[in-house]
Write a structure and sequence with these properties.
The protein is mostly helical. About 65% of the residues lie in helices and about 5% in strands. The chain has 11 helices and 2 strands. A two-stranded antiparallel sheet has the order 1-2.
Length: about 300
């Protein structure tokens, strides 16, 4: 693994080349205690190789119109981080396919068409609003996942938990870039809120369709115990997420107002001292105030 640092201010963003290991025996339920959460995350991951290239394309189209050199540099680093994200998710999604899920192809085809259509038929202003809406939602989700990491990822497969938490640490790092580009080129409160609502509804609708299809293949969708567990899990997630989402709708919202979680900052420090360990978290110790890496050669 290696890194390149830059940022909004002094070195806020870091482009990291990560390595995540997925055991051959791992099932789609990489969190065996929470198969429903496993499939929610799996469904969200399926979107990343289509959503994030769409975000990259949008930002690259915006770049020539930007008149601020600092913002141009931040945009370039945002693009570099997002490129790493979708490549890592594509590798993980290939692991899911290898485990025999037959519905994945149709899910991916739908996502590819969605983002092709948005990029081809919508204005740059709309696409910037969608990008800003997604990034605001991702910041809220990242805070929620980190705060509730022990419940959601405890004792799960290290590679998958590390992939997801790494991704959202970096979403937190580049939290203000899409906002700044949107405000610079298309800033309008009502357009921003429309982008937030559209992106949130679209992504959640496709994610729901994805995890429903995957749970059907597992034989769990019609299992009442699994449906109860799923309902309780969603209630827990949205109870934490809703106040964070409402904050985004305030007229003078700015992602810089959102404090970086201490655990996310600690993960970034861990990467600087132990590149490999940052991608190999000990999921039995996620309740620790700082991330703990598995020993080299140790698996979980």
């Amino acid at each position: 693994m290696s890194e390149t640092a830059t940022g909004d201010g002094a070195g806020r963003m870091t482009v990291r080349r990560m390595g995540f290991a997925y055991p051959a025996a791992m099932s789609g339920h990489w969190n065996r205690r929470r198969p429903e959460f496993s499939q929610i995350v799996n469904a969200a991951s399926l979107a990343m190789p289509y959503l994030e290239p769409y975000l990259i394309k949008t930002m690259r189209e915006a770049r020539p119109r930007i008149r601020d050199a600092v913002l141009q540099a931040a945009l370039d680093e945002y693009v570099a981080q997002e490129a790493m994200h979708f490549r890592q998710h594509r590798k993980f999604n290939d692991e899911l396919k290898a485990r025999g899920y037959k519905s994945i192809g149709a899910i991916e085809d739908q996502l590819a068409e969605d983002y092709r259509r948005l990029g081809a038929t919508r204005s740059l202003e709309f696409n910037l609003a969608y990008a800003e809406g997604f990034e605001s939602m991702a910041l809220a989700i990242g805070q929620m996942l980190i705060a509730d990491r022990r419940f959601l990822f405890g004792d799960s497969e290290s590679g998958v938990a590390s992939l997801v938490l790494w991704h959202f640490v970096e979403e937190i790092e580049h939290k203000n870039v899409a906002y700044d580009v949107f405000e610079h080129l298309a800033g309008n409160y009502f357009r921003r809120i429309y982008g937030l609502l559209y992106a949130t509804a679209h992504i959640m609708w496709r994610t729901r369709g994805g995890y429903q299809a995957l749970l059907k293949e597992d034989g769990l969708w019609r299992d009442w115990r699994s449906r109860v567990a799923l309902g309780l899990l969603l209630l827990r997630i949205f109870a934490q997420l809703t106040p964070k989402m409402l904050r985004i709708m305030v007229p003078f919202y700015n992602p810089r107002q959102v404090k970086d979680p201490a655990w996310a900052l600690s993960w970034a420090r861990l990467f600087k001292t132990d590149n490999a360990g940052a991608g190999r978290l000990d999921t039995a110790r996620l309740d620790a105030p700082e991330p703990v890496a598995l020993s080299a050669g140790e698996t979980k």
